[in-house]
Design brief:
206 residues; mainly alpha; Ferritin; 2 domains; 73% helix; binds fe (iii) ion
Length: 206
């Protein structure tokens, strides 16, 4: 009889434990808290994911062109392959940040077909591609500034997001712009003094 009672009590305990798990499963807690989490700020961050992936696709096409046998500028192509990887990683970092903050949306690519950000797949010269890259980075920097403004708005500010954008991403953008501007000016100088060999010599330096 005692044995039967034990079994009934054990079964009851297992049932209670399972019920508690079920409650947890249907009522999850969230990392968000109202004093810092601002929908308007987090929404603009979620839209940036697409921009980073579209920049990655654009660099991918630049790398692909300068890898063709007829162009064969492996140094320049290498720069663009690296940039394509970096932009993809930026998109991933934005997703990871959003997840850290408790953002639950997953429709990063729903607004139309994802495509290379400049919608371009051929370039007359290395200089044209590098100038496009610089314009692309300046557009991303403008987007960072817009996000910082949204996330710093009086009474609706998200201090952590604004700081993350300013310290991490503005720094990244400004360094990237400086790097590209330097490359463009070096290439132009090579071209001026060695018109036919300019791109080839420049590529050797990369
Ligand atoms: Fe980026």
């Amino acid at each position: 009889m005692n044995k039967l009672l034990n079994i009934i009590v054990m079964a009851g305990m297992v049932g209670l434990a399972r019920a508690a798990c079920d409650v947890e499963a249907i009522n999850p807690v969230s990392a968000r808290e109202a004093t810092n989490y601002r929908d308007n700020c987090i929404d603009v961050l979620s839209k940036q994911v697409r921009m980073e992936f579209e920049a990655s696709l654009q660099y991918l096409l630049m790398a692909a062109q300068f890898s063709q046998d007829t162009y064969h500028l492996p140094g320049l192509a290498g720069q663009f392959w690296k940039s394509a990887d970096e932009e993809r990683d930026h998109g991933k970092q934005f997703i990871e940040y959003l997840r850290m903050r408790g953002y639950q949306g997953n429709s990063f690519f729903e607004d139309g077909t994802i495509k290379p950000i400049l919608n371009k797949n051929s370039w007359e010269s290395a200089s044209e591609a590098l100038r496009d890259a610089l314009e692309m980075e300046k557009a991303v920097t403008a987007s960072m500034k817009n996000m910082i403004d949204v996330c710093s708005k009086d009474g609706e500010d998200d201090p952590h997001a604004a700081d993350w954008l300013t310290a991490t991403w503005l720094e990244e953008q400004l360094n990237g712009q400086r790097h590209l501007a330097g490359l463009i000016n070096s290439l132009e100088r090579f071209n001026r003094d060695h018109k036919e060999l300019g791109e080839w010599l420049f590529d050797k330096e990369l």
